[in-house]
What we know:
Protein name: DNA helicase-2 / ATP-dependent DNA helicase PcrA
Distance between the termini: 33 Å
Oligomer: single chain
Pfam families: UvrD-helicase (PF00580), UvrD_C_2 (PF13538)
Bound molecules: adenosine-5'-triphosphate
GO molecular function, one term: 3'-5' DNA helicase activity
Strand content: 15-25%
InterPro entries: DNA_helicase_UvrD/REP (IPR000212), P-loop_NTPase (IPR027417), UvrD-like_ATP-bd (IPR014016), UvrD-like_helicase_C (IPR027785)
Keywords: ATP-binding, Helicase, Hydrolase, Nucleotide-binding
Amino acid sequence: MSEQHQVFSAEQQHLTDTIAEMKQIVAELHSDIDVRRQRLHKSLQHKDEVSAYVHNMMRSDHSSRIHEIEAAIPSPYFGRVDFREDGTEEFVSFYIGRCKVARLEIQNDSDILVFDWRDPVATVFYECYGGRASYEVLGRYQYSGDVSMKRQYKIEDCILKSIVDNFVLDQILARRQEALLGDPMLADRLQQGATDKLRDIVTSIQAEQNKIIREPLNQVTVIQGVAGSGKSTIGLHRLSYLLYNEKLNRHKLIVIAPNRIFLDYISELLPEIDAGDIRQMVWDDLAAAITRRELKLAEAQQLELILAGKDKAGIGLLEDISQLKGSLDFLQVLYAYLEQKVQKFCLKLSDISLFDGQVAITAREQLDKFMEDRNMPYNERLRTLIRYITFRVTNHVEVLEALQAKGKAAAGQAKRCRQEADGFLKKYFKRWGALDLLEAYREIFAAKAVFKSVRDKRYDLDAIRRHTLAVLDARQVEREDLAPLAYLSYLLDGWAHVPRYEHIVVDEAQDLNALEFAVLKKLSDNGSFTIMGDLSQGIHSYRSISSWNVLLKEVFADARTVYREILHSYRSAREIVDVFNCVMPQGSTRAIPVYEIGRKPTLEKMSSQADGICRVISKLAVFLAQGAKSIGIIVKHEEAAADLHERLLPAAVEAGIVQPFHLVSGQAASYRGGISVLPVSLAKGLEFDSVILWNAAEYTADPLNRRLLYVALSRAMHGLHVLYRGTLTLLLQRYVNTCFATAD
Ligand SMILES: Nc1ncnc2c1ncn2[C@@H]1O[C@H](COP(=O)(O)OP(=O)(O)OP(=O)(O)O)[C@@H](O)[C@H]1O
């Protein structure tokens, strides 16, 4: 990245010319706005609404273009790629930036000074292998050709700071890993460290990520990516890409995330990439909005109970509850309940014969009417039948009243019929009450028979029913009840009040279960999803999906599905990737690092808690001196995190550490960066310049503890310090000499 770059001055000149032209375009847009304003005025005077609409639209379109171009002037582009389409002679330079900059009249490509990173041609910049590249327009037209050069720029405040060339024709690299390590702009960006919010990556999107961002809209795209592979980042960039290219309505897009801290963490990225005001929700809130109930959630104890490992029977039951209520099998239970209700309802039907047999509606006819549209929600079917019977009865009376008014019916006849009708209507529907969601849900667990379809599975159904009834009787529900309740509300009342979406992004998808996805599927207009996750980080695996096949082959079996894997870890330096690869759950594919820092993680034994606190404080000082802006002190259990936080505060003051210490708890709604003490379960999705792992002795070698340790270690970008008391976890013992340096 040398300022002496041989073409530096030519590029500086190009930048100056581009900026001058951008200013010129802005001036032209302003004067066109004036012209449009006058024409709009005239059109309104002549009541020419079509012209008025066009001028008004052009005016507002110009205003937003002015806004975009002015924002881009300090750094109009970050890349250039020289491309020669097959069959043509000349290489053409395409400049790529955060927004498109084009002259007012576009005759050909040269009138586009800068292409938007989401434009089709930008793919040539992001994906060129061995001097060849191709891109697709409108999913139909393919263009292929040679790439002679890819150039990256750092431009700040209109000044060209540096240039990096990647002469792809000369650098046909055999291994992708080397290619990544060979991207100095990426390494530079990754070495900048963590911030308190997720950032955009438009200047350094990698080929494998670009492919995912540009996947077609109408499909379910499932992405399995190792820790730090950019899943969250890509999912959000994909939204921006879809908005730009598919012209979606931004109110019809939604991001589902695991918790509010994570939503806060990603909140600034969306506006940065022109995808602001997109709805973001955690699953619990979404379920509450669907059911239109303020559901009181019982405190989730499963994870802590399982980790404590003492009450084996209790753990088994909680696991069974989660598995059953999260499975598609449970839908059969809901349908069986509904079937039972329908049957019971049919018994209430009787032949109706009124007004001396002039109105007769047999039980059969009522039943047929009720069963006419089986997809209609139960309560709606009920209301439809009530409306039908009421209409038949009252219509007869009204006709009679009209006849009587004309003297064509005997006096008093209409009155007698009206009385008969009123009496009947009051009585007949007495026991036809609509089903209430929570009462119905309780009834399901009170009725053994509806569990018939799952009886031969291994569940202890009586215990599950008893447990659920106790929770419901305490006027609470558990997280596992949210999806069944949401689905049941669909079956009972329908979701006329629930918005449908054109694209749904689900992050940390490994934490959701099949039934939760079945609910999400019903929210989709077009089966368009981006689902990102990492099964190795499935710390709630007792309740969530255990394989992506559950989604691909079961929940979305009838949709077009695409599965992609990312193995490169962009977050953590090689030295840290080496450590978390050691504890990765068995059978998972190892992460591939893309940069290194030349400093191994450190490991220390603490003799007591007080000693551990001293060691945390001194390591904090080291990390802060190294320039770490965000440091995570990760503790296995939530309660222990709160306790450690309390003890660290006075020690930090004594040591003269002035940075505030934040405790990140389950109730927290925002993430503030700096120094944070937090449990592993809440660290998921976040990242820190440096991580101090508190007591690595606590992680046993079972699958759940492996996942927890994997999550904790993989939060670190550049610095990692592992403390343990007693015996170091078996998961790390073999790697002490190879992966760790002795503590400073
Ligand atoms: N192409 C890239 N250029 C620069 N930075 C990148 C790139 N891809 C990912 N990153 C960075 O890597 C880090 C990890 O990204 P992100 O949090 O999106 O990964 P993730 O796969 O969702 O992680 P996890 O599953 O571990 O929570 C972020 O700091 C992100 O900015």
